[in-house]
């Protein structure tokens, strides 16, 4: 896999460990000659993963809504900017440009991206998976809800068709290499 779509927080007030994990993931991607496809913002985990991949010689593609462009909130680590009109268009472009998606810790925007990718896979728009990178157990509660929904038959398509969980670096290597 070459183009990795990454969903994650743009917040700049998180525990330092989250920034370190994001930077390390970016470095890992760069060391494996992967391209980061993400929202292009200059803050939070988004900036950390972009910085990490650039430090290891990787390529960064930022899909940037015009509102961020006008506020000059684009990361300096982006090699290629793909402008878009809004968040819905950004999700669609990221989905088109990547081979698979990885979700690092994030908030409402990250959840929106995860669920859009999974829902569109479940009805056949694409066959790309979302990997929840769960090093710190961040996604445990969400996984509990999803597994409960699956057990109660609220999910018609098997979760493993569009969702994978990486709890270790070995899991990431197995899923992405």
Walk me through what this model shows:
The protein is of the alpha/beta class. The chain has seven helices and seven strands; from the N terminus they run βαβαβαβαβαβαβα. It has a seven-stranded parallel sheet, with helices on both faces. The chain is globular and about 45 Å long. The model has no long low-confidence stretch (mean pLDDT about 95).
Give the structure's gist in a few sentences.
With 177 residues, the protein is α/β, with parallel strands linked by helices. It contains seven helices and seven strands; from the N terminus they run E-H-E-H-E-H-E-H-E-H-E-H-E-H. 45% of the residues lie in helices and 19% in strands.
Rg over CA atoms: 15 Å
Structural class: alpha/beta
Q: What is the makeup of the main sheet?
A: 7 strands, parallel
Provide mean pLDDT, rounded.
96
Helix content: 40-55%
Q: Unreliable segments (pLDDT under 50, ≥5 consecutive)?
A: none
Through-space gap between termini: 6 Å
Q: What is the tally of helical segments?
A: 7
Order of helices and strands: EHEHEHEHEHEHEH
Shape: globular
Q: What percent strand?
A: 15-25%
Kindly report the spatial arrangement of strands forming the biggest sheet. Answer: 4-3-2-1-5-6-7
Number of strands: 7
């Amino acid at each position: 896999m070459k183009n990795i779509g990454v969903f994650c927080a743009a917040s700049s007030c998180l525990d330092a460990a989250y920034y370190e994990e994001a930077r390390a993931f970016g470095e890992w991607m760069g060391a494996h000659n992967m391209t980061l496809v993400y929202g292009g913002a200059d803050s939070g985990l988004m900036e950390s993963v972009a910085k990490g991949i650039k430090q290891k010689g990787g390529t960064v593609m930022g899909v940037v809504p015009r509102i961020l462009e006008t506020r000059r909130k684009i990361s300096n680590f982006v090699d290629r900017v793909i402008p878009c009109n809004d968040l819905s268009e950004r999700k669609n472009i990221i989905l088109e440009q990547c081979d698979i998606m990885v979700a690092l810790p994030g908030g409402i925007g990250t959840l929106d991206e995860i669920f859009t990718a999974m829902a569109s896979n479940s009805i056949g728009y694409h066959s790309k998976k979302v990997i929840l990178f769960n090093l710190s157990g961040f996604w445990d509660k969400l996984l509990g809800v999803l597994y409960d929904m699956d057990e109660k038959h609220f999910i018609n398509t098997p979760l493993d068709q569009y969702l994978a969980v990486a709890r270790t670096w070995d899991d990431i290597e197995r899923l992405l290499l």
